[in-house]
Amino acid sequence: MNAAMLAPSILSADLTRLRDQIIAVEKGGADLLHVDIMDGHFVPNMTFGPNIVRALKSISNLPLDVHLMIERPENYVDEFIEAGASIVSVHYEATVHLHRLVQRIRSKGAKAGVALNPATPVSVLEEILPDLDMVLLMSVNPGFGGQKFIPASAAKVEKLRAMCDRLGVNPLIEMDGGIGVDNAKDLRRAGVDVFVAGNAVFGAPQIAATVDLLRTLIQA
Ligand code: DX5
Ligand code: ZN
């Protein structure tokens, strides 16, 4: 396992007060900022482009964890890396030449992640796992914040962790969707390293205190 990290997802932030909300998550001890990019094709919703990454980079020193929920991610990764992404995750389901794309992300100086939808088994990663810095397991169907955690996701983390041990590799394992104070601790035990939390952080009355509480839970 790796050290536990918390990545607040700005999808649920109040964009009219983005700077203040970033300051609050920094104060609470956030480790990364999770940025959800949606194209209205791969998922039924649209969000941001590289400009938001550039803007975040200019106001925060936290590494930017960019989750591309877009078709043909190979056409856009360069722009997101140039804008300041530290980690770029592409969906397994969204590209044909995954190996080529992972090499491309790394050659541009970013860490490479591969994301899996809830119905995609971890076994599809067998060949690419040694080349990955991170695996992002979706614990809701991607597209929206504030959804309910899919319970079978915990077993999927355990399966991935066992596969990593068998192959002798140790990528970050990130879980994304429906994570909060009620399930974070159990998910750490199952093997999650990076915890994405949108609604649980930005929907809380005290953002900094909630980040601090979540971090305490995952570090125990
Ligand atoms: C969903 C996004 C998530 C989302 C999580 O498609 O990938 O990152 O922001 O939000 P919560 O924590 O509210 O489920
Ligand atoms: Zn995400």
UniProtKB/TrEMBL annotation:
PROSITE patterns assigned to the protein according to its UniProt record, in alphabetical order: RIBUL_P_3_EPIMER_1, RIBUL_P_3_EPIMER_2
Question: Residues that bind a divalent metal cation, according to the entry?
Answer: 34, 36, 67, 176
Looking up InterPro entries in the UniProt record yields: Aldolase_TIM (IPR013785), Ribul_P_3_epim (IPR026019), Ribul_P_3_epim-like (IPR000056), RibuloseP-bd_barrel (IPR011060)
Q: Which GO terms describe its biological process?
A: pentose catabolic process; pentose-phosphate shunt
Q: What are this entry's molecular-function GO terms?
A: D-ribulose-phosphate 3-epimerase activity; metal ion binding
- Any one cellular component term from GO for this entry? cytoplasm
Q: What EC designation does it have?
A: 5.1.3.1
Q: Give the UniProt keywords, A-Z.
A: Carbohydrate metabolism, Cobalt, Isomerase, Manganese, Metal-binding, Zinc
Pathway named in the protein's UniProt entry? Carbohydrate degradation
Gene3D superfamilies in the record, alphabetically?
Aldolase class I
Annotated cofactor note: Binds 1 divalent metal cation per subunit.
Q: Which domain of life is it from?
A: Bacteria
Requisite cofactors = Mn(2+); Zn(2+); a divalent metal cation; Co(2+)
What Pfam family is a match for this entry?
Ribul_P_3_epim
UniProt entry tagged with the keyword Isomerase:
yes
Name the positions where substrate binds. 9, 67, 143-146, 176-178
Which reactions does this protein catalyse? D-ribulose 5-phosphate = D-xylulose 5-phosphate
Q: Which residues form the active site?
A: 36, 176
PANTHER family cross-referenced by the UniProt entry: RIBULOSE-5-PHOSPHATE-3-EPIMERASE (PTHR11749)
Recorded hits in HAMAP family, A to Z, give: RPE
Q: What does this protein do?
A: Catalyzes the reversible epimerization of D-ribulose 5-phosphate to D-xylulose 5-phosphate.
Membership in a protein family: Belongs to the ribulose-phosphate 3-epimerase family.
Instruction: Return the protein name.
Output: Ribulose-phosphate 3-epimerase
